[in-house]
């Protein structure tokens, strides 16, 4: 497989230093003490009485021992005893309650220009550019597919921050604003959000006046503990309970539904008062003095094997090993690619493999077989640790039995590993779902490429049994009708709702030339190419490690390549068919899938030039990349997910494949993709398939994930395969 995938040639964050201007926080003992305050907005006498009356009618009772017994809104199920606590004022400050968890939200997208997304391991936060998390749409702080914070805002002296600057780098968001008359502000405020294994907010207050001042700070926090999948759909009907209460001086929010538990602790040093929906404190600032308040949201009762790679310091360690940017790749794009990957790193605390990579932020902060393996192939020419971690994690979860719900089969590599509530319910598909047909051959390919790129032979040897089982799946359960092609039913199976189990997994991705949707079973052409390459790779591994006879696998690989050429090649279209449908007829559609046969070395040598030319025609090549579906197809839509958009990893794979066959189009295509990256400094999951002649910059796809692992790895793949050719192309273009 060296000739197939290996390149031809050999070849920050941190906490802000605020200096000595910071003054220690003063104790609040001499302040006027406040009683047990009601939630904000109901503190006057009339409202106070109304709330008390409402509490009485709902069944709220004071209980002995300084505890509060509540039911009311949550009905009989909500009865609980939780302690009240004291703030710095020495008065009881907690309101404790429980309520059923149910909600309805408007659909929101991570591409919303008024939000930014911070990512770290299995955590992400979608935060407004003003530093607030609003209780609408998809905003929030998520850990392991559960939204732990659905609302978060800071008001200072009763006012919202007047934002003057916002900057987001990696897992850190800085928001700078003022309080007071905008022409003569009295207070400068810096909010720094940092996401590691917790969400930390540093609130830096600077008195801009020559007088002493007292600053009132109100932090409002709410949690709905929504499951990620249900946030995406916009509705969550369920009957769990959310509890709010004070533990020590922290605000603690917990959720429970059957055996599923989640929680978050909101901590502020020495708060004045803790409410069911927030925390209040007061800061004293001398003339021109500065003070910092730190707020931490720490996950509780999260039972997950993957976590942040022990914080930002490990992301720094990853970035310190970033190779120098080659001359062919813009320096900003190169650095951003490695930085984006660093924010998606995860580690397994319970297993020996050191790191794995999440597929993308915000919706795919989990281990995905296909995405993680392709990202591993993109990074292997530069470092092997990521690929090793991914391979070990997937081998640990390789299928052992037949399960019609999770689609597990012996030898099959998982599609995704999830940790939220929805997948754990009786009608869910379980934490590990196996509904993909390409992760298994890609696993074998990645084992071979890890060996070719210098991975410790003992580490590779330990993965060989899993690779052999994967080959058994390719030749057995993956080919249920025995025709030599790996296929999937093409209908929704189990509870995950995936009709298509190749990389284009949206329901409408496989289209006939008339735009109609192909009926299953479906055998997509790129999956057959991966299987051809996997069989050859396993033969090479057997020969190198002496674990079996390579001959039969080489024969099977050659036979599969011949069968692909015979059954899929469309001579009139100079392209391979998108797939075989349920009648085993070619889906005679020109799509980007065919370009993957160049990458794996599956395309017949006498077809390669014609295929490359076809992919570069105007209906496929936009000027920034290759469309997923040709623009002449009636189903073409430049802003569809898989029927006309451009995916950077897809285009990079095709460009690398063109280079393998010596096509002059390789450098042109790679340069076009780098031009797309240069506009924003990074490559997103996908972008619109509009022609560059019509629009001089890529059009964002509304719900595209950024960062996305295999998109971040696309420039790395281009540099590994085409560096010298790109240099020549850039020189010519200049």
Secondary-structure map:
Blueprint: H1 2-5, H2 45-58, E1 61-63, E2 67-70, E3 80-83, E4 97-100, E5 103-104, E6 115-120, E7 123-128, E8 140-143, E9 146-149, E10 151-156, E11 162-169, E12 172-179, E13 187-195, E14 199-207, E15 213-222, H3 228-233, E16 235-236, E17 241-247, E18 250-257, E19 260-268, E20 273-275, E21 278-285, E22 290-300, E23 306-308, H4 312-320, H5 331-343, E24 345-348, E25 356-360, E26 364-368, H6 369-379, H7 385-396, E27 416-417, E28 432-433, H8 439-452, H9 457-475, E29 523-524, H10 525-545, H11 551-568, E30 569-570, E31 575-576, E32 579-580, E33 586-587, H12 596-600, H13 605-615, H14 648-660, H15 665-680, H16 709-712, H17 714-733
Antiparallel strand pairs: 1-2, 2-3, 4-17, 5-16, 6-7, 7-8, 8-9, 10-15, 11-12, 12-13, 13-14, 14-22, 15-21, 17-18, 18-19, 19-22, 20-21, 23-24, 24-25, 25-26, 26-27, 27-28, 29-32, 30-31, 32-33
Salient structural properties:
734 residues; alpha+beta; Beta-galactosidase, Chain A, domain 5; Glycosyltransferase; 2 domains; 9-stranded antiparallel sheet; 6-stranded antiparallel sheet; 17 helices; 29% helix; elongated; disordered N terminus
């Amino acid at each position: 497989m060296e000739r197939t995938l290996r390149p031809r040639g050999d070849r920050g964050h941190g906490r802000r230093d605020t200096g000595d201007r910071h003054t220690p926080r003063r104790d609040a003992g001499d302040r006027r003490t406040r009683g047990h305050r009601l939630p904000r907005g109901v503190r006057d006498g009339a409202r106070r009485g109304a709330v008390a009356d409402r509490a009485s009618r709902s069944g709220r009772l004071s209980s002995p021992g300084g505890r509060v017994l509540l039911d009311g809104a949550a009905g009989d199920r909500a009865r609980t005893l939780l302690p009240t606590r004291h703030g710095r004022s020495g008065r009881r400050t907690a309101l404790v309650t429980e309520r059923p968890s149910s909600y309805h939200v408007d659909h929101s997208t991570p591409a919303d220009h008024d939000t930014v997304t911070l990512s770290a391991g299995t955590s992400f936060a979608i935060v407004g550019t003003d530093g607030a998390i609003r209780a609408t749409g998809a905003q929030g702080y998520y850990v392991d597919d559960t939204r732990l914070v659905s609302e978060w805002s800071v008001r200072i002296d009763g006012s919202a921050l007047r934002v003057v600057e916002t900057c987001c780098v990696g897992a850190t968001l800085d928001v700078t604003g003022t309080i007071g008359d905008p022409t003569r502000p009295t207070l400068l405020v810096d909010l720094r959000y940092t996401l590691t294994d917790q969400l930390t907010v540093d609130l830096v207050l600077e008195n801009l006046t020559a007088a002493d001042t007292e600053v009132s700070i109100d932090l409002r926090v709410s949690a709905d503990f929504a499951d990620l999948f249900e946030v995406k759909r916009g509705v969550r009907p369920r009957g769990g309970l959310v509890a709010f209460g004070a533990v020590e001086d922290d605000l603690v929010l917990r959720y429970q539904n059957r055996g599923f538990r989640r929680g978050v602790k909101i901590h502020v040093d020495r708060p004045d008062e803790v409410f069911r929906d927030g925390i209040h404190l007061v800061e004293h600032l001398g003339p021109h003095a500065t003070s910092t308040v730190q707020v931490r949201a720490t996950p509780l009762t999260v039972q997950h094997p993957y976590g942040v790679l022990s914080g930002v310091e490990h992301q720094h360690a990853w970035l310190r090993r970033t190779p120098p940017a080659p001359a062919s790749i813009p320096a900003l794009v190169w650095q951003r690619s490695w930085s984006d990957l660093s924010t998606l790193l995860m580690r397994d605390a319970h297993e020996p493999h050191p790191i794995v990579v999440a597929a993308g932020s915000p919706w795919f902060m989990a281990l995905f077989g296909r995405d993680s393996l392709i990202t591993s192939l993109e990074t292997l020419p530069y470092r092997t640790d990521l690929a090793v971690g991914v391979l070990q994690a997937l081998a640990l979860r390789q299928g052992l039995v037949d399960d019609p719900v999770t689609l597990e089969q012996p030898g099959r590599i998982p599609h995704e590993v999830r940790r939220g509530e929805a997948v754990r319910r009786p009608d869910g598909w379980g934490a590990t779902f196996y509904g993909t047909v390409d992760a298994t051959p890609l696993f074998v390919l990645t084992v071979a490429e890890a060996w070719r790129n210098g991975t410790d032979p003992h580490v590779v040897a330990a993965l060989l049994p899993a690779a052999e089982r994967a080959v058994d799946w390719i030749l057995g359960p993956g080919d249920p009708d025995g025709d030599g092609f790996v296929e999937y039913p093409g209908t929704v199976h189990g509870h995950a709702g995936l009709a298509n189990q190749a990389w284009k997994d949206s329901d409408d991705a496989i289209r006939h030339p008339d735009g109609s949707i192909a009926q299953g079973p479906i055998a997509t052409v790129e999956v057959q190419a991966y299987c051809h390459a996997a069989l050859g790779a396993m033969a090479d591994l057997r020969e190198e490690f002496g674990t079996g006879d390579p001959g039969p696998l080489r024969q099977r690989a050659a036979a599969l390549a011949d069968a692909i050429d015979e059954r899929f090649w469309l001579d009139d279209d100079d392209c391979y068919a998108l797939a075989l449908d349920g009648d085993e007829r070619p889906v005679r559609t020109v799509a980007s899938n065919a370009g993957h046969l160049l990458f794996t070395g599956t395309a017949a040598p006498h077809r390669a030039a014609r295929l490359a030319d076809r992919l570069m025609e105007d209906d496929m090549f936009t000027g920034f990349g290759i469309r997923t579906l040709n623009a002449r197809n009636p189903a073409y839509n430049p802003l569809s997910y898989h029927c006309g958009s451009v995916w950077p990893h897809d285009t990079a794979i095709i460009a690398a494949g063109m280079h393998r066959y010596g096509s002059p189009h390789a450098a042109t295509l790679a340069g076009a993709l780098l031009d797309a990256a240069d506009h924003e400094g990074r490559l997103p999951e996908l972008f619109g398939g509009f022609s560059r002649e019509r629009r001089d910059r890529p059009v964002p796809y509304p719900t595209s994930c950024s960062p996305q692992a295999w998109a971040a790895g696309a420039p790395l793949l281009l540099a590994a395969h085409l560096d010298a050719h790109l240099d020549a192309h850039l020189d010519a273009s200049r």
